[in-house]
Amino acid sequence: MHGSRTFRLALSSASILSALACTALRPGNPGDVTLPGRIITEEMIASYNVANAWDVLQRSGAYHTSRNDSPSGATNLRSKRGKTSVVFANSDVPRLVIDGARVADLRLLRDIPARSIAWIQLLNGMDGTLFEGTNSGAGVIMIVTKAGL
Length: 149
Fold this sequence. Notes:
Distance between the termini: 48 Å
CATH class: Mainly Beta
Low-confidence stretches: 4-26, 83-89
CATH architecture: Beta Complex
Mean pLDDT: 74
Helix content: 25-40%
CATH superfamily: TonB-dependent receptor, plug domain
Structural class: alpha+beta
Number of helices: 4
CATH topology: Ferric Hydroxamate Uptake Protein, Chain A, domain 1
Largest sheet: 5 strands, mixed
Radius of gyration: 18 Å
């Protein structure tokens, strides 16, 4: 009986910690809290002098990007991994979150003007899995637009 109560208390504490950790990733000012991962600030984006979010990510050097201008508009964005990494089908495609909403189609990155981005947060596989779930092993790209603040 006592062991069951201890388990519920531990579970409750874990739920609270999980909720607190997720609040750090909500849109706001990146200077207000210490965010995990790498932050690409508005000033950095402006210095890249590029047109859209796709080009910002390409200039950041965090991902291998390629673009296929075929009628299907196929887009490839892959995380950088070592030569001996084991990669399963599409397991190296990062999760995309824009203003708190998960987005499945990476082609949307070409439609986001660079000047409209407040900042981009890049999470590695470990942090991505912690904050966005088990299908985020290739990392997470979190984009906060000026309109989303």
